[in-house]
What does this fold into?
Amino acid sequence: MRFPLFPRWAALLLALAAARAPVPVAQAQAPDDSPAVRRAPNIVFILADDLGYGDLSVYGQKRFATPRLDRIDELGLGEDTIVLFTSDNGPHGEGGADPGYFESNGPLRGMKRDLYEGGIRVPMIAWGPGYVPSGQVSDHAWAMWDVFPTLAAFAGADVPDVDGLSMAALLRNDGPVPMHRALYWEHRNNMEARYSQAVRQGDWKLLRVWTPDRQATELYDLRRDVGEYHDLSERYPDVVQRLKALIEEVRTEPEMDVFKNPYE
It folds into this structure.
């Protein structure tokens, strides 16, 4: 088996799902000689550190050996295992790293600690022969807070009442996929004296940035301008006002001062 593999492992999280309780299967759909229950899958969640949107083919390579996944198959666990592989944010430029040299972000603007797409849009690979059809590619937008509900759904557990949505149907490619009304981020960057907010609704994305000297508001149409180089805020002031109001609606003020906007 060959599988695209991420090159950096500065932070690695492997979470094997503890929920292995039997999940009922509809009796009417099961042959007479088949069990009426199916065990919940093993879940392997791998979180790479600072992986850029374009880093799937680092150094120009397209395919990498994956002995651990091969071993899962050899042990006969492939049909009962789901592997999710993603990153916490975009690439960084610290310690001599040069994400531009290897085009780590592809067409995206920004990097780690930015709320441009280069800082928050990262790839995910899903592998699970018994659950996830191979060869599928999706540009459906979802976020890290959707991972917990998604794994709960695969485990047959009740989906918790959190902001995230289960994307199990997306991974299985077997039904309607939920869509967030909006996705919202904020970040206080003390290293560069910058506080940022961003909200995405459909193809529209509003970015607000505060520094000690100024405050800027930018609007982008991600369908036409995924690189976020053409600010449309002056052309579409009604969209700007709508998304500003949406931020006030969905946002919760941080309780700790360290996360608050110091420039307002």
User: Anything to note?
Assistant: The radius of gyration is 21 Å.
